[in-house]
Design a protein that fits this description.
Elements (H helix, E strand, L loop, with lengths): L13 E14 L4 E8 L2 E5 L2 E5 L4 E4 L5 E5 L5 E7 L1 H4 L21 H19 L4 H19 L3 E4 L2 E4 L5 H16 L7 H8 L3 H12 L3 H19 L4 H7 L5 H12 L3 H8 L11 E4 L2 H15 L5 H5 L2 E7 L7 E3 L2 E7 H7 L2 H7 L5 E6 L5 H13 L4 E5 L16 H10 L6 E5 L25 H9 L4 E7 L2 E6 L6 E8 L2 H5 L7 H10 L3 E8 L4 E11 L4 H7 L21 E9 L3 E8 L2 E9 L7
Helix pairs in contact: 2-3, 2-11, 7-9, 8-9, 16-17
Length: 624
């Protein structure tokens, strides 16, 4: 089992492990791997070399290199970042021939700091796991590979170590890169200096000098080195005779092979096999490591980013408010949460929306639907609508009421400010009823009118609709609460579910819904709020597999934001009486979490944001 097959989950071409490593036995894989020491130090055996990697050291294994990791510091934390060569080859066709070296024994330079920052940004995005983390990490890795191609695509020999080769001559770098790639791809063939000179259109004299100057070895020595290095896979992964291995990798005689193998490995091929075969990864000799909880990893990554003093975006990533929320599920609840949603509808709502109104209502889970009518509505219309509502399963009350203007008309009611206002107003409130109109009163050609209803006049969901959808189903114990977060344990006949609600806002945003605010004023208040915040939430859940549904309402994915892009011009084709086919629902991320001791979750927010997550034991299909 020397070959380690890397599994990439959910079409994500990057595999990341952040762990305390005790022992990672000898193995190889076909894909590129970054060994990034975040804390402490470890010993890396790669080929015939042994490296002591310290904090912030990065070693790049280019695939098909036999290597292992052992602990030098019991408190180490290492990030193993593996990338799918098959996937990224669509952007870099020669990636499978790459031979990157990022390790240096001369001390780190600005180019190493830049590589660290790029990889730390990927690790941070992966650990936070926002709704777009896969896409963001993939694009960021493309930039990393571009950087490797430009800066770290060569190696040289320094004593007994293989290190990054440094040159300021781009022509030399390109030529030696081609030469090394060709030798590694054709090591088993009969390659001569004349053949290589003809392929590269260089004189043999110039070619021999460039190889010697860049690698420290002449052409024949370097070819033998490549053959010896590749032979280690067959030595430790097959029962082939030494003579057959020598032939397979291109040596004309076994003695010639043994001579060069001993030159670099210090042992004969047979001695090497006998010494290291028991250390090979197998079903009975697996890696010994302890995964680092996401919260701890995020804190460490941020500290490393901060220490780099990067001039790019790391400052904005680090200079945020960080909240660590540890929730004990066995603690005495602060309160019991239960709200009754009462939705008001009118006959004209049915006339405008047709039967689509029933799906909008059913998704809200209202306790009662109040049918508001006036003298202008015919008894036949009222009876028909009431019957349809009851047939659809709603508890209906009829109430005669003339049109009453709302006490406050605010554009905040049309924006993300409204769900934030509703949730934080009601979580600790004594109010048990939420009574709201379903649809804006007909406003003619106006799309947004600032009314505290859940739908626009043409039936498009406003952000408040999704807040009421959550609140109407939110029944359970409030375990912890703060200005911008709460954790609720919902009641269930079997296993409880846990709801985490977090938001990022200020007083101006919260109060926007309590006083008259124009659309342009609301836009300015929302856009000027640029604060960043990270919530790291821990729950001491029983061990098991948990399903996680994470929803995000941002200031950009709603009808207010779309109209804002048109400067709130009503003549943009959005005033149809039919539902607008634009996405306004929260972004949803689904995944399974294997909980051993503690469930950890991170919420990262930039600007106005509202996120909530539903966590339940896998197999429990009950509603939250």
């Amino acid at each position: 089992m020397l070959f380690e097959k890397i599994t990439y989950q959910d079409d994500f071409p990057i595999n990341i492990t952040i762990a305390n490593i005790e022992d990672y036995p000898i193995h190889y894989h076909q894909d590129i791997e970054f060994v990034f020491v975040l804390k402490g130090q470890v010993t890396l055996k790669n080929g015939y070399c042994s490296y002591t990697l310290h904090e912030r050291d990065i070693f790049t294994n280019s695939g098909h290199e036999v290597h292992s990791l052992t602990s030098e510091d019991p408190d180490n934390i290492v990030a193993l970042i593996q990338i799918s060569t098959h996937y990224f080859s669509q952007y870099f066709p020669s990636l499978s021939k790459a031979c990157y070296r990022t390790y240096t024994n001369k001390g780190r330079s600005s180019k190493h700091d830049n590589l660290q920052e790029k990889l730390l940004d990927i690790l941070l995005q992966y650990s936070i796991r926002s709704s777009r983390y896969k896409t963001e990490c993939t694009y960021a890795m493309i930039e990393v590979i571009k950087y490797l191609e430009r800066i770290f695509n060569l190696f040289a020999f320094n004593g007994e170590m293989v290190i990054n080769f440094e040159s300021s001559n781009p022509v030399t770098i390109e030529r030696i890169s081609h030469i090394i790639g060709y030798i590694y791809q054709n090591y088993a063939e009969k390659i001569t200096l004349d053949d290589l000179a003809e392929i590269e259109h260089l004189s043999t004299f110039y070619l021999s000098h460039i190889i010697k100057d860049c690698t420290g070895m002449n052409f024949r020595e370097f070819l033998c080195f490549a053959r010896v290095e590749w032979s280690e896979i067959q030595l430790l992964d097959t029962n082939k005779k030494i003579s057959q291995i020598a032939k397979d990798v291109g040596f004309s005689t076994t003695s010639y092979y043994e001579k060069y193998f001993r030159k670099w490995f210090g042992l004969s091929p047979q001695e090497h096999r006998e010494k290291y075969l028991p250390m090979v990864k197998s079903e009975f000799h697996r890696e010994t490591l302890t995964l680092v909880p996401p919260n701890k990893a995020i804190t460490l990554i941020r500290n490393l980013l901060s220490s780099l003093n990067s001039q790019k975006n790391s400052a904005s990533l680090v200079n945020t408010l960080k909240l660590e929320i540890d929730t004990d599920i066995h603690t005495a609840p602060l309160a019991y949460i239960s709200h009754l949603l009462i939705v008001e509808v009118r006959c004209e709502d049915f006339a405008a929306m047709g039967f689509h109104i029933f799906s909008r209502l059913s998704n809200l889970y209202p306790e009662t639907v109040v049918l508001i009518y006036s003298d202008e509505d015919s008894p036949k219309q009222i009876d028909k609508f009431q019957m349809l509502l009851q047939t659809a399963g709603f508890q209906v009350e009829c109430k005669k009421q003339n049109y009453l203007p709302f006490s406050v008309i605010s554009a905040g009611n049309d924006s993300i400010a409204y769900p934030i206002h509703l949730i934080h107003k009601l979580i600790r409130s004594e109010e048990k009823e939420i009574r709201l109109p379903l649809r804006d009163y007909d406003t003619g050609e106006m799309i947004l009118s600032g009314q505290p209803a859940l739908l626009t006049a043409n039936g498009t969901c406003k952000p408040g609709y999704f807040a009421c959808q959550l609140l109407s189903r939110l029944k359970g114990n409030l375990l912890c609460w703060g200005k911008q977060y709460c954790v609720i344990e919902t009641q269930s006949d079997s296993n409880p579910a846990y709801i985490i609600i977090v938001s990022n806002f200020n007083e101006a945003i919260y109060e926007m819904c309590t006083k008259e605010t124009t659309a342009h004023q609301a836009k300015t208040i929302l856009n000027e709020f640029k604060d960043e915040i990270d919530f790291n939430v821990s729950l001491n859940l029983p061990p098991g597999m948990y399903s996680v549904m994470k929803y995000s309402l941002t200031k950009n994915r709603n009808i207010f934001a779309y109209l804002s892009a048109f400067d709130f011009n009503d003549d943009v084709g959005f005033h149809s009486t039919q539902t607008i086919s634009i996405p306004t629902e929260p972004e949803l991320e689904l995944y399974i979490e294997d909980v051993r001791t503690t469930f950890n979750m991170n919420f990262s927010m930039k600007g106005v944001d509202l996120q909530y997550a539903v966590i339940r034991l896998k197999g429990d299909s009950k509603d939250a």
